[in-house]
Design goal:
alpha/beta; Rossmann fold; 40% helix; globular; binds NADP nicotinamide-adenine-dinucleotide phosphate
Amino acid sequence: MVTTADTPDRSRAGKRILVVGASGFLGRSVVRSFSRAGYEVRGLVRDPAKGVRVQEDGGTPVVGDVLNVRSLEKAASGCFGAIHLAANPPSESDTVRVRVEGTRNILEAAGRRGVGRVVIGSGYWVYRGRPELIRENSPVDPRGESRINYDAERAGMEANSPGELDVLAVRPGMVYGNGSWFQDVATAIRSGKYRLVGDGRNRWSFVDRWDAGTAFRTVLESGKAGEVYNVVDGHPATLREFTDFVATELEVPPPVSMTLEAAVGEMGDAVAHHLAADRPTSNDKLSQLGWRARVSSYRDGIPDLLREMFPLDRRTRSGVGSAPVLRPVRR
Ligand SMILES: NC(=O)c1ccc[n+]([C@@H]2O[C@H](COP(=O)([O-])OP(=O)(O)OC[C@H]3O[C@@H](n4cnc5c(N)ncnc54)[C@H](OP(=O)(O)O)[C@@H]3O)[C@@H](O)[C@H]2O)c1
């Protein structure tokens, strides 16, 4: 059901926002959501060539770096809000700088340029896994990459000054779309290489990539200063259900599993525990702001997504007696 309108709103015309990390997986969905809603969107890119992505999503690229405050100040000029989704620099050691120092830099630039609201992107991996529904005040247990996201949230909240500089944080669940982790998972399931960690009875919480974009917009527009919001579709599923569904759609056998111990040895403690954690997560707080997922469950979104990612190879399909071949396409 579509309840979050993309229809341009005249009251938003001329309202300018800055998206940092605009060429990334989540950044693109945010640029698209704001521009479709009638905002003027500036998308910060390090590489001018990636500005094309921002333009495709309806924004205006501005060249800069989250580690360079002057470039942020320039980009933030005239903006009423900013969103931090810069992440994953080529060198792993720079991740802390981009996420945490980057947060401080954006807040410094925001303060100087009179930007009133800043949203820090984080992730639901900060929560400790548990069988009960996870809400924003549930216990956290940030490890690995989620520790860095959590530190970025905290750096942001330290600067929260309601009414003057509102700082908010967003914790999306597993955002599925053409790219990021889902590209890797779908490709591995398709080639028979994916292995579940543990028995697969742990639940993950999902959200469609473009719905995540509208959620960031809802939080920037209507969220309360100093608050954190989960972004999930409200239909958690066990990892076994999810991966079996993907396998069925791809017409391949369901993936086998590996022990947690083996996974720790292969991918490290933080990632293995994240993958095996039970995180049924609530979106009640975000729903109270009026947000609704356009794609209410992965079961509705993934079939079309897989067709987009692995389009049928027509040459093979037309061959007598040969099965359709799905080829990966990455954006
Ligand atoms: N993907 C998910 O499912 C998901 C779910 C929950 C939370 N999150 C969190 O959301 C955040 C963004 O994730 P993502 O998947 O969108 O990452 P991504 O696709 O790797 O995008 C990261 C973006 O940051 C930019 N960037 C890197 N270093 C920068 C710098 N120094 N200055 C300015 N921009 C810089 C990158 O630009 P270049 O192309 O120039 O490197 C890219 O546009 C992360 O904190 C992640 O943990 C993601």
